[in-house]
Amino acid sequence: MQLFQLLVLMCFACIFIQANSDISKFPSLISVQVIVRHGDREPDEDFRNPLGELTNNGKKRMYDFGIFLRGKYGKFLNYITSSKSVSILSSDTGRTIESGLLIGLGLSEVTVQKSKFDEGNLYVPFPVRTIPAEIDDFIKTSRICPRFQKLLDESIENYVNDFVERNRRYFTKFAPATGHWIILNKTANSDKINFFVFYQEQAIYNATMGSPLDEVALEAVVNPDLAFKPGYDALRVDSVEKQRLYLGPLFRQLTNTFLAEDKKKLNIYSAHDRVMYTFMLTLGVWQDPKETPPYGSALSVELHETFSGETYLEWWYKNDTGSYLLEIPGCGKPCFFSQFIYQFDQIISGDNDIECQLL
Ligand SMILES: *[C@@H]1O[C@H](CO)[C@@H](O)[C@H](O)[C@H]1NC(C)=O
Ligand SMILES: *[C@@H]1O[C@H](CO)[C@@H](O)[C@H](O)[C@H]1NC(C)=O
Ligand SMILES: *[C@@H]1O[C@H](CO)[C@@H](O)[C@H](O)[C@H]1NC(C)=O
């Protein structure tokens, strides 16, 4: 072959490679899983009757999140959002199912527009599947696990008493203002805190909606020492045993989804802050000890393949401020999938059916 011809050929090859890598922004992306917290909601009616429906802001936030996902993964999905390549799985509550539907709408908007013309104005919703609360052990984690409940009850008692003691000045104002004297009773069980938690949730909601607050309500919103939830939810994962009992099923869900032969490209879990927060604590990537994940925040994990065929994980956290690439302590850069499984083996390899019954 003449040198000239060879050069031309090589150049074609280099243009071809160049063009190919431009075609897809994610040449090595194989599959993505996204855990997202539902949108802004109303406060719960009470502890046994959690209604907490999405507000209009919350609806818009979830629709916008669908559009965000479309922007980030549209190319990867070849702009086809069918249930062959995408799944949306929700916990069995109104706010998460509605969030899932709105994400699906934002994600598939262009497809929906097209089918409107094709099918004569039929709205084509994206299917959102859900798991009944009694057997949900990884989205809402509402399945009952007696062993875990026992461990948790033991730690809650101390946490609640410490919390009230630390904030005694506040609670001596709160009790007469609300009539809930029981909160000052040191021997009453930890349920005594429920009224305060419910009250604080309402106060925060009222503050966001611009309603006036009385003095004890205002302090419950602005005083960082009165942040109850982050420390309370953290009790769920403060030992390896609790992590395994509480989050083992989620760890297995995520790893098995990536290990499956016929995996979907995009898997969305419409979930709650508690599971996202405890999961991020366990991974070692949660930043703010006074907060839990805000409405519509999302934790994504992407499975990538290197040129030599090894797979690694990329973790992303998205909130109102931006999208952040996370580093799992101890997993390295890149965080190889095999290393991740090895590192969290004590959590992943549990058997909840057996361990939950050990009392
Ligand atoms: C405090 O709570 C305990 C346990 O519920 C109860 O027996 C006791 O009477 C309460 N004390 C006061 C002063 O209300
Ligand atoms: C919140 O607002 C509602 C309705 O305005 C009111 O009934 C409730 O007492 C308020 N709660 C708090 C804690 O401020
Ligand atoms: C969003 O998350 C980043 C990373 O954890 C954090 O630094 C930032 O403060 C968060 N933004 C808000 C508004 O909380």
UniProtKB/TrEMBL annotation:
<dbReference type="GO" id="GO:0003993">
    <property type="term" value="F:acid phosphatase activity"/>
</dbReference>
<keyword id="KW-0378">Hydrolase</keyword>
<keyword id="KW-1015">Disulfide bond</keyword>
<dbReference type="Pfam" id="PF00328">
    <property type="entry name" value="His_Phos_2"/>
</dbReference>
<feature type="signal peptide">
    <location>
        <begin position="1"/>
        <end position="21"/>
    </location>
</feature>
<keyword id="KW-0732">Signal</keyword>
<dbReference type="InterPro" id="IPR050645">
    <property type="entry name" value="Histidine_acid_phosphatase"/>
</dbReference>
<keyword id="KW-0325">Glycoprotein</keyword>
<protein>
    <recommendedName>
        <fullName>acid phosphatase</fullName>
        <ecNumber>3.1.3.2</ecNumber>
    </recommendedName>
</protein>
<dbReference type="InterPro" id="IPR033379">
    <property type="entry name" value="Acid_Pase_AS"/>
</dbReference>
<dbReference type="InterPro" id="IPR000560">
    <property type="entry name" value="His_Pase_clade-2"/>
</dbReference>
